[in-house]
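Re-run with default settings, no changes from the original entry. Doing this only to confirm the output is reproducible before filing.
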Amino acid sequence: MGDRDYRKTITSAADAITKEVDLQVAEPADNKTIYLHEVTRCMRRSYYDRFERLEPETKGFGNLFGGLIRKLPYGSKMAEFAIEDIKLKGQSDMIVDDIVIVFKTVSIAPETPFASDILYLNACMWISGKQDGVIIYITGDGSETSFVSAKEKKMFEEVIRRVRVFSNLVGERKVPILEPSAECTQCQYYERCYIKRNEGKQFSLTELFGLKNK
């Protein structure tokens, strides 16, 4: 193997792929360009990503996986949808036989698809002009669970509403409201919304309520 640093090479390759995903954020103050992932997840997190960005402690394998898929022959391209003077940009992972496909990596396969994933998939169908879509969840052991969805207008109208809200908040430099979800505990901005994860000090009930033994 010689003296070559293969770990560094692998890390560099992974960063090159995930960079493609990371770049899918508009210029901070550009409230006329909105990316789909910014409004189908917590908008407060998307806002901080624009103006006060913190890198997550670890790169998500989901980003890496999505970046790899998009480089395949069936990988999809960035699409655009006009909402008045706002450009909504979005990208699925693949489009095969006119079916929009989105891959998600999870630790445990869900019994039903996550709401944010359904919003994202449905919007991808509208933006790309397709009628059908599939979400495929892949776990660490390689098993997969898929959910089929047809294009639905009401859901896309909700995305459009969120696009307008996020555009206004970015333009006015106002932080979006809290949107609690299961993703909060893994978010790099957790402490800006809630208490610190671990203060390193234990409190007893006696100390907490000011009680003393007599």
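Strands lie at 33-35, 79-83, 86-90, 94-96, 99-105, 132-138, 144-150. Residues 138 and 144 are 5 Å apart (CA to CA).
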